[in-house]
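Work through this:
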Amino acid sequence: MKTVLKTFAAALLLGVAAMGMAKAEPVKIGVAAEPYPPFTSPDASGKWVGWEIEFIDAVCAEQKLDCVITPVAWDGIIPALTTKKIDVIASSMSITDERKKTIDFSDKYYNTPTAIIGPKDQKFGAATPEDLKGKIIGVQVSTVHADYVKKHFTEAAEIKEYQTQDEANQDLAAGRVDAVQADSIALDAFLKSDQGKQCCDLKGTVAPDLAILGPGVGAGVRKEDTELKEKINAGIKAIRANGKYDEISKKYFDFDIYGADPQSN
């Protein structure tokens, strides 16, 4: 009888352990498989680093989630989420109504202006359709910036789309496009590079369009993953309250990247 009880107890312990292991499944954090400094970039060893990596690591640590960075091609990152190849998108994805038709988002975790840069020797004033008339604008495919230029600049300028932001920047430096639109922080990183310093400068920020640019960047989750969304929101709230968010941000920025809540235009 004792042997039977011992066997039953051992089996029960194994079952509990197995259940514990099942609960500890890693949360796959999808990031675009391309350098996007200062938010996400692979270092010399291949490890992903940057503000957004530290941010999501802090959120996961706060919520005791076992998170694993998982690079995915940008134009396939939403399908990767919906088909469960990844569990969260943490890749500077703007919260928009169009994307909300397919996925859900956490609360905003940063919001920065949208900017246009161009060659130093081309003085076309600001970042309006009038200033960009007759120009070629480079933009990354499947981004809010691509949607924005198609709505606001198509009649004035030619639009050229690229698979990655780096390709757009390279063509700008080579003189194959006259301007590039993207997030102001990502463009600032390029302008501070040796290549960027030589070729280009900031032309200005674009006029607001809340419907396209959205209220800021959030973590993308599947619509059915409400518990995970709640944990991410709780983690964001906690690290903003305990100072960890600011501690991370001060390593990369000399301003408040969280930003104000935008007003529609």
In short: The radius of gyration is 22 Å.
